[in-house]
Amino acid sequence: MSRADRARGADLLRLDVFQHLFAGVAEEMGASLQRSSFSPNIRERRDYSCALFDGEGRMIGQASHLPVHLGSTPMSVAAAIERVEMGPGDAVLLNDPYAGGTHLPDLTLVSPVFLGRDRRPTFFCANRAHHADVGGAEPGSMAGAKDIHGEGVRIPPMHLARGGRIERELVELLLANMRATREREGDLLAQWSTNQLGVRRLTALAEEYGKGELVGRARELIDWTERLTRELLRSLPDGCWQFEDELEGPKGDRPKIRLRLEKRGEAITFDFRGTDRRPGSARNTVRAVTVSAVFYVLRLFLPAGTPTNAGILRPVTILTEPGTLVDAVYPSGVAAGNVETSQRLVDVLLGAFGKGLVPDAPAASAGTMSNLTFGGLDASGGTFAYYETIGGGAGAGRGRPGAHGIQTHMTNTRNTPIEELELSYPVRVLASTLRRGSGGAGESPGGDGIRKRLRFLAPVQVSFTAERMRRGPWGARGGGAGQPGGFRYRLRGARWKRLGDGVVLALGEGAEIEVRTPGGGGFGRPGRGEEG
Question: What's phi and psi for 20, nearest 5 deg?
């Protein structure tokens, strides 16, 4: 090995050290947020994400949290930098989907990191957490509205803290428009303390390694990821492929997401122009979420150990039409777009990749987050609100059966522990099991979905938002489709009634609901291999 080769190897090793230093700070931020939050959705389900950014707002490191958050948070950071002048000890809060957000329950907090006597931030810390309620027509802020005004409180970038002190007037204004205010305040303060931890850790790293070294290595990490992404693209065949899939609208409506994927050399274009429009639907998703889906799918095919940062998108062009399902414009509703349309975007992307770019791309997974919310009045006259996404079956791949009953693709949360659910809310869990045989048949079978049945011990408002309830997730390479999901309810002493997506119900004590989530698609023709 030549001296130059040894020097390159040593430099890559040192760069890898900084990759893990940045990721370690983000992971520690996540652990802090989980420990200090109040709501089960953040504390137990871990519905949050943390990341670090350089002084220009480019992502330099992230924790292994939620893809739908992490790919879109850079746009929130960019909006905060553009619209708000930040000083030491400040923190900027936002959830505006039209300023880099996703949907209103996802509150993002951005904090600057000033090193030495710098007048401009050298880095930024950011975290995003899903609050179980942010106001709106129904508990959980996920249903019952046709545009953004009915979905909850919309927060443009503004100071939550100045000089290390919380802006109490803003907090009180927000709490006055939200349910379960003790949880909301506790979660919001947990987000603030999480960013403070990130600021301290980055400051300590600068003191240990030097500001110049830290800034330089962050820049090199982005360049390294760009090189690895371009190498991946060069290794794949050139060509153009098209794929489309549909969402499940009301009264049999089937709006389509269309993609034309073109790869030439070390550049790739994702053209979503031609996707349908649904201005009165909450299935719209903002461009930031579409970018997240592309970011996530590209990361799937990069080598293990590739730093996850802004470099992934440098060789990428993403084309969308404002006003379509994948590029919502004000005042479109977006509550369900973030959780449902995002999953269909991944299906479309993987379907296009599987046409020839990556022939072994997996079958479709559950394709939905199966969003359940309920809320009401507690014994003291206060409000409670609960939000949960329920896992389903993963799509199978070559030589890899789909996993059972897990969160897939754009979500990465846990299923709520039964004990936590029953201790925190007036509900009993009567069943929480796998739907055996719901995965699609194949050489590698798809994963099974979940069946969950609840009984309410007090009057509640319930909403359920899901996809793949009419047609199950598709299989790949001759594999069978997974079984679709379903929702039903019954009042005390009455018969079961089946309902579709977009359910909003007022239920009394003793009422029951049952959710069935889809199985994943199978891979390969059945009978050609061992079915694990």
Answer: -75, -30
Q: Establish if 310 belongs to a structural domain.
A: no
Q: DSSP states of 355-374 as a string?
A: IIISTTPPPP------EEEE
Measure the CA–CA gap between 321 and 317, rounded to whole angstroms: 13
Helices 168-175 and 181-209: crossing angle in degrees, nearest 10, is 140
73-123 tens-digit pLDDT: 999 999 999 999 999 999 999 999 999 899 999 999 999 999 988 899 999
3-state SS assignment for residue 38: coil
CA 444 to CA 396: how far, in whole Å?
Answer: 6
Query: What local confidence, expressed as pLDDT, does residue 508 receive?
Result: 97
In a domain, 129, yes or no: yes
- Give the total number of structural domains in the chain: 2
**What is the residue-wise DSSP string for 379-421?**
TTS-EEEEEEE--BPPPPBTTBPPPSSB--TT--PPPPPHHHH
Distance, CA of 181 to CA of 150 (rounded, Å): 19
DSSP strand pairing (267-271 vs 316-319): parallel
Say which residue, 437 or 532, is predicted with more confidence: 437
Amino acid 117: pLDDT: 85
Rg (CA), the chain: 23
Residue 198 belongs to what domain range?
A: 3-224
The helix (run of H) or strand (run of E) holding residue 197 is helix 181-209
> Model-level pTM?
0.95
Q: Which of 224, 244, 262 is the last residue of a domain?
A: 224
Burial 150-173 (b: 16+ CB within 10 A, else e): bbbbbbbbebbbeeeeebeebbee
Q: Is the pLDDT of residue 10 over 60?
A: no
Q: Are 354 and 386 in contact (CB under 8 A)?
A: no
What span, in angstroms and rounded, lies between the C-alpha atoms of 109 and 95? 9
What is the pLDDT at residue 527?
A: 80
Looking at the predicted structure, is the pLDDT value of residue 333 above 60? Answer: yes
Q: Which of 456, 452, 468 is nearest to 425 (CA)?
A: 456
Cite the DSSP H helix spans in 47-167.
67-70, 73-83
